[in-house]
Request: fold
Amino acid sequence: EAGVAQSPRYKIIEKRQSVAFWCNPISGHATLYWYQQILGQGPKLLIQFQNNGVVDDSQLPKDRFSAERLKGVDSTLKIQPAKLEDSAVYLCASSPLGGGRETQYFGPGTRLLVL
Amino acid sequence: EDQVTQSPEALRLQEGESSSLNCSYTVSGLRGLFWYRQDPGKGPEFLFTLYSAGEEKEKERLKATLTKKESFLHITAPKPEDSATYLCAVQAGGFKTIFGAGTRLFVKA
Reply:
């Protein structure tokens, strides 16, 4: 079974530029998560989708971050404009149903450096 | 406020020296507690899920236990390949997943 795919793996941009990350979850998984992991910290949930609807985006900085999951499969997370403090690893995860108590399966992450 | 705290922040062991990692939590309506392993440059890898106090699960040299306030990850006779960051996460009543900051484990041969 193929795992969660993410691209790109690394990205370096200057502040105020825009960047987009892509995630393809495990086939058949209804729920998709985007996390931000700053160096030395645990992952922080940014947004959770169930199929193509948003379940939780309470920690997403909506003035600069946006995410979509068209057709309930793959997803894109965008930052516009980027700030220095956005430097982090952006992790995508998926789970079969998302009704709680489910294991989340993580992709390798996208490492973003904002200069 | 829901919170997850892991201790110690870092742990250095000699090969074969058993120890425990702690995850304490304060959440309303625990639905599940998860342990993950994260190697440098990789995403977290699932280890265990615990659902209720008193539950225990084992896998090779690892054993996870759960009480009403905390979870322990016991590592028996660790090997250098067990070196990694171990993350604890809880799912509360609103289905939101909250991660701790992790414990970085170093096992020296």
